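Morning!

This is the sequence you dropped in the shared folder:
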Amino acid sequence: MAGILLFGFGVQWYLVAIIAAVCVALLYFPDRFYTFGVLAIAAGWFCASVHASASLPASMHGSNVKLSAKVLRIVPSGDYSRLLVAADTIGGVGLDSPVRIWISLLCHADEAGIGSRVHAEGYLRDAAKFDGLPYETDYAAFAAVDRVSAIMTAGSDGFCVVTPGSGIGERLRQYRNNLADAIYLSGLSERTADFVVATVCGDDNNLSPDVRETFRTLGLAHLLALSGFHVALFAGLASLLLYPLRLWRRYARWRHVAILAAVWFYVLVSGMPASAVRAALMLSIVLGGKMMQRQGVGFNTLAAAALVMLVWNPGLLYSPGFQLSFTAVAGLMAFAEQLNPFSRRRRYPHLLMSIITVPVAAVLGTAVVSAMYFHSFPLLFLPANAVITLISSLIIGGGAVLSLIAVCGGSCGILVWTLDGLYSFAYRFCRMLTGLPHTEITGIYPTIVTALLLAMAIILVAVALNRRRHLPWIMAAICVLLSLGAQRVFAEKNPYGELYIPSHSAETRVIMRQGEAAMLYCEGSAPATHATLSACSRRYETWLRMRRCHGNFSLCDSVDMRADGFGRNGSLLHAGPYTLWIAKDADDIIPLQADYVVVGTNKNLNIAELVHKMSPRCVILTSGLSKKRRRRYETDCRKAGVAVHNAADSTFSLQW
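The structure's back. Tokens below.
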């Protein structure tokens, strides 16, 4: 892991080679622990470099281009789809090796399949370069997971499917879709069917936002995504169906092979999420040890699963699913047994107490990672997990049986009625809990230093519980106190007002905030503006919450932050002490005073006349301009003695 992080930080190969050579020389000394540790770091760097994504020429970024590519993955989401493609031709130029690109398609890619050949045209930007608003999701980390080099935004008119999908990936996707269709046609209510499809097939796109928010608030979000919990249930169901093989001693061991084959087929059909792959790998190691009559060690099994996954794809280290899955299992191994006051010999008291200790252990393991990603802490996770986990087990198991019956063309009215009743009770119980006061602590935004100190404190608590020593308790308390101090020192102070022109937008977009009001200005038609308004509210949700803005963005129509229309000539934006003129027409420039001039059109502007009439501090060139015109405007601004900011390369920001 350290080697992968070093590669991500840009450490060069020759430094790693020198360190590895020194370690090889030190192998002749008796103590080789540190030597092998550093060699492992070098191996991690090497794996990350081998799997690194191919880079695109800088000339292709920040502009509208055409590409031809093969579809590797399809992720439907709401009113749009995301396609992971391997492009071999960009801008009419063939590439030496295919480059992975995420295409955000502003429509459903119904005709596309895995293995399809597609043509797309849209705005292309570098995935590794991130320059956005504070607390905005850094998609560069997510791009590293899929080895993506660039991200494209394309519309339905700029996308076409040339050849249909083919291959094993497309067949598995069709199996998943057929299974989901069978569940929807089985007679289940819509809400229950959405939950069963999400937990059995791994397709959670149809879950309603209130269900997601309810489960997240209660610390039950892991039930909505395929994880070790679901894999364990499926493995238990497969073990039950294959139980007769256990009575046949000659072939008893082959029962484990059949279980693993069924589990891996389930993981492949469900799309191979990181948590499910981790569970399948650990199950393979455990059952393989049983077949060879070997006893496994929990942390060694977990480390082996992590090693296999990171060698296969080092970018998984940056995946939230990977981090949450492994920290949750590590928390269970470190705390679950130690917090339980009853030994395993007292079977029933130990089992009852585990209803409390297991959720506490999982929450302790994932506390820091959850705070970094979700910025909240559930307070009612104990009663929610005690009740909903058991009911979810019945729903998922029953849903798997019902899906098999439905695929075979049968029906079971009693099972459908039971699943509807169980889900209805579970949902009403969750809504009742979320209706109580103080269900969660929100607004948790730890800094990197705070997160590291809290993680060290949790590790020290685990050491103290397992070693029965007092010193780790004292050190853990010191780490907690230091983390509180670090949070006060390093936490960012909210300014009263802010203005941003994002660099990753293909259109002229201005985001403003003053106090607790957040406004959006966006060029385009009314439907496009409202769609952009909704998309921005989702994209900058964390920033809005951190700035204590109530609700979502609204269009510029207030007194302090408004857009005064001047017909087709342009718009004047008032943001705190600043005024911005957003130019629209190249023919007529209105003589007025503006602090900043935003140029977001490909029409020919007379920069000298514009500067003379408006006397701006700075001219801002947005991504809506072609590269050729942007370079010419930059030259004209420098000749006129006016500062220029290229918003296509970096986000423009103001604070007051």
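Headline: Residues 177 and 613 are 61 Å apart (CA to CA).

More detail when I'm at my desk.
O.
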